[in-house]
Amino acid sequence: MSAKWRKFLSYYRPYMKGFIADMCFALIGAATSLVIPLIIRYITGTVLSDGFAHAGQTIAWLFALMLLLLLIEFFCNYFIAYVGHMVGARMEYDLRNELFTHYQKLSFRFYDDQKVGSLMSRVTNDLFEITELYHHGPEDLMISAIKLLGSLVILCLINVPLAIVALVPVPFMIVFASILNRKMKRTFKKNRERIAEINTRMEDSLSGIRVVKSFTGEDMEIHKFTEGNDLFLMSKKDNYRYMAIYHAVLWASTGLITV
User: Fold this and answer.
1) What pLDDT sits at residue 67?
2) E-strand spans in the chain?
């Protein structure tokens, strides 16, 4: 394992208990979401075949079981949303303290070549994105893996040939997602650069507001800020266009699998 990966994973260590609990509840929640449709299928396909009059008690028990599973899924989702995000927030806290401490140790030469707004953006926007990866990355992988493998097993138990046919679009979805992911990475990087430029422009303008007002330079500052804001809007436009294509194609592919 490279030094970068060891450094990246080291921030999990102080909060390993919370992280493991979050992953366990993500696993339970994902598994529960797979069981409920099976119960409904059993009711409609087996229990009701003998008529509602003879199946009333069985349906009542199964309904109670589904309510219990829904409560379990509710608690799992609550735990993931609250405790999982708090784990990410604490990691963000540690990262921000470490980064600020690192800033204090850097030389004057470093600050001569850097813009304060860009450095502030690292502490705020960039760290938030990193901690979102810390929290949602493993969690989403766990949920997706459980649902994908669980669905595959269920489909195979129902009908193997149909399961194989349903999985035909999956390789194409993976290839498409990987290609578009590269383009989205470039747009996300450009977004971070643009917002850093906006922060820099705002910091420069507001820190020198007395000089700006003394020389009636408000219009010039507004014009410069608007230019940077326009560039940021254009980068967001590209980003959302790729996101729209990504989600539209994946949703359509999912619908194709269902059909």
Assistant:
1) 92
2) none
